[in-house]
Amino acid sequence: MAWMILRRMLSAVGVLLLASIVIFVVIAVSGDPLADLRDRQPPVPPSVIQAEEQRLGLDLPLHERYLNWVGGLFQGDLGPSTIATRDIGAELTDRIGVTLRLVVVAVVIALILALIAGTVSGLRQRRFPDLVLTPMTFVMLALPSFWMAVLFKQWGIYFNEQVGASVFATVGANSVPPPQGFVPFLLDSAAHLVLPTLVLILVHFAAWSRYQRTAIAESLAGDHVRFAVLKGLSRGRVVRSYVVRPALVPIITVVALDLPVLLSGAVITETVFQWRGMGGFLLESINLRDGNAVLAWLLIAAFAVVVFNLIADLLYAIVDPRVRYGN
Amino acid sequence: MATDTVPTDEPATGGNGRGRVILRRFRRHKLGVAGLAVLVLLALVAVVVPLVWPYGHGEITPDLSQPPSAAHPMGTDTLGRDLFAQTLRGLQQSLLIATTVTVVACLIGVTLGVIAGYFGRFVDAAVMRLVDLTLTLPTIAIAAFLGSVVPTGGVNWLALSLVLGVLMWTPVSRLVRGIVLSLRSLPFVDAARVMGAGNLQIMTRHLIPNVADHIIVAATLLFGTAILAESGLSFLGFGVQPPDTSLGLLVSNAQSAVLTRPWLFYFPGLLIVVIVLAVNYAGEGLRDAANPKAALANPLRTARRRRDADTPPDDTPRGVLDVRGLTVDFGDQRVVKGVDLHIDDGEVLALVGESGSGKSVTALSVVGLLPPDAVGGGSVRFDGRELTGLNFSQWREYRGRRIAVILQDPSTTLNPVLTIATQFKDSMRLAGPLPADHRDRIVALLDGVAIKDPARLLDSYPHQLSGGMRQRIAIALAMVHDPDLIIADEPTTALDVTVQAQVMSTLALARERTGAAMLFITHDLSLVAGIADQVAVMRAGEVVEHADVDTVFYRPRHEYTRSLLALAPSLALAPASRSAAADIEEDS
Question: What sections of the sequence does the record tag as coiled-coil (chain A) (predicted)?
Answer without folding.
Answer: none
